[in-house]
């Protein structure tokens, strides 16, 4: 994994999570800001999938379990999609809060993926 990209992913996910939670707790329904912020998190996760495929070919091999890394990455990539679907099905303020929690969960998962890739020894 690339350190600056990991930091950017975590920062965007935390910001999206805080924004969604604040919007949801203020009583607003899902809108462009909340869904768009989660879509941006999803876009960064898709880019991370590409980076994870290319990185070993250019000499950036993982030090931890590759299976564990990919399990985290695939799970993290599915979470924003599930949060957006929930928001469109429920259309209530709590669905926006759920999207915020999803974004915060993705931030934690991206940090864990970075630890598996760079620090953890298999």
In short:
The chain is mostly helical. It has helices spanning 3-25, 32-54, 66-90, 93-118. The chain contains four helices and no strands.
Describe this structure in words.
- It contains four helices and no strands.
- With 122 residues, it is mainly α.
- The protein has a single domain (3-118), classed as Four Helix Bundle (Hemerythrin (Met), subunit A), CATH 1.20.120.
- α1 (3-25) runs antiparallel to α2 (32-54) and α1 runs antiparallel to α4.
- The longest helix is centred in the last third of the chain and has 26 residues, at 93-118.
- The radius of gyration is 15 Å and the shape is elongated.
- 34% of the residues are buried.
What is the number of domains? 1
The parts where pLDDT drops under 50 for at least 5 residues are: none
Count helical runs: 4
What is CATH's topology name?
Answer: Four Helix Bundle (Hemerythrin (Met), subunit A)
Largest sheet entry: none
Mean pLDDT: 93
Q: What is the CATH architecture term?
A: Up-down Bundle
Number of strands: 0
Distance between the termini: 16 Å
CATH classification, class level? Mainly Alpha
Q: Approximately how much helix is present in the residues?
A: over 70%
Element order, helices and strands? HHHH
């Amino acid at each position: 994994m690339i350190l600056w990209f990991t930091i950017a992913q975590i920062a965007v996910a935390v910001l999206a999570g805080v924004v969604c939670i604040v919007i949801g707790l203020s009583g607003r329904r899902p809108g462009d800001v909340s869904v768009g912020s989660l879509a941006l998190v999803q876009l960064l996760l898709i880019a991370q999938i590409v980076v994870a495929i290319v990185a070993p070919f250019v000499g950036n091999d993982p030090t931890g379990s590759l299976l564990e890394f990919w399990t985290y990455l695939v799970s993290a990539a599915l979470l924003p999609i599930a949060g957006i679907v929930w928001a469109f099905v429920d259309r209530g303020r709590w669905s926006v809060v759920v999207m915020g929690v999803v974004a915060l969960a993705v931030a934690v998962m991206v940090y864990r993926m970075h630890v598996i890739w760079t620090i953890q020894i298999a």
